[in-house]
């Protein structure tokens, strides 16, 4: 059976394993009347749009999409941005603060967080300490997403992505670019063949 691709907006996370990031998502898929259940390893948050690759299956009589790979992108609507930031993924931002931020900046809020985060102090009640906490949480979240995208681009499974990230942390990309073969020695589940494939993708000389 060939793989299929499913795209939609994450409405709810009904389960997530904190150690492996294996998740059960409820997703709004264009063209489908009911919410769909998508299962797989992902750090996607409520409000984000996902592209999942996998196959349909059944569990306890319920149809679900069993994803081998899930990639996420930021929401593009004010409602999606509010749900995304209000999901609790960033310390200091809950539903109330997320609503305040979106009311002030609209759907351009994520651009503000990326490029001019100090402007959050324009919002009533957002003092320097609160803004600093939000900036730190946002930067950490972005770092994780960038690392996951880098690993996915080298065809590393989602489960191994999380294992690699937990081992190397924010030094993941620099470590792999400097010497991808360290993966074969340091990370359980990765052999020389996978490390060599990544090395070729980075144009590292065969010798």
Any overview of this molecule?
The chain is of the alpha+beta class and 207 residues long. Helix content is 41%, strand content 24%. The chain contains eight helices and five strands, in the order E-E-E-E-E-H-H-H-H-H-H-H-H. The protein has helices at residues 78-85, 95-105, 109-115, 128-152, 158-168, 172-178, 182-186, 192-201; strands spanning 4-16, 22-28, 36-41, 49-59, 62-73. A five-stranded mixed beta barrel has the order 1-2-3-5-4. Strand 4 and strand 5 (62-73) form a beta hairpin. It is globular. The N and C termini lie far apart (39 Å). The model has no long low-confidence stretch (mean pLDDT 88).
Task: Explain the layout of strands and helices.
Blueprint: E1 4-16, E2 22-28, E3 36-41, E4 49-59, E5 62-73, H1 78-85, H2 95-105, H3 109-115, H4 128-152, H5 158-168, H6 172-178, H7 182-186, H8 192-201
Parallel strand pairs: 3-5
Antiparallel strand pairs: 1-2, 1-4, 2-3, 4-5
Helix pairs in contact: 1-2, 4-5
């Amino acid at each position: 059976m060939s793989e299929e691709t499913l795209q939609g907006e994450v409405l709810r996370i009904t389960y997530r394993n904190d150690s492996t990031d294996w998740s059960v998502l409820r997703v709004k898929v264009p063209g489908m009347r009911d919410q769909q259940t998508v299962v797989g390893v992902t750090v996607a948050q409520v409000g984000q749009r996902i592209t999942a690759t996998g196959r349909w299956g059944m569990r306890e009589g319920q149809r679900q999409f069993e994803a081998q790979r899930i990639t996420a992108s930021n929401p593009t609507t004010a409602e999606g941005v509010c749900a995304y930031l209000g999901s609790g993924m960033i310390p200091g931002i809950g539903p109330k603060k997320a609503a305040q931020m979106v009311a002030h900046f609209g759907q351009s809020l994520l651009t503000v967080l990326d490029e001019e985060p100090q402007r959050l102090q324009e919002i009533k009640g957002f003092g320097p300490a609160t803004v600093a906490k939000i900036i730190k949480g946002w930067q950490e979240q972005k770092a994780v997403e960038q690392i996951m995208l880098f690993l996915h681009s080298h065809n590393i499974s989602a489960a191994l992505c999380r294992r690699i990230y937990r081992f190397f942390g924010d030094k993941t990309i620099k470590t792999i670019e400097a010497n991808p073969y360290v993966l074969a020695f340091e990370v359980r589940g990765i052999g020389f063949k996978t490390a060599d494939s990544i090395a070729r993708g980075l144009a590292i000389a065969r010798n």
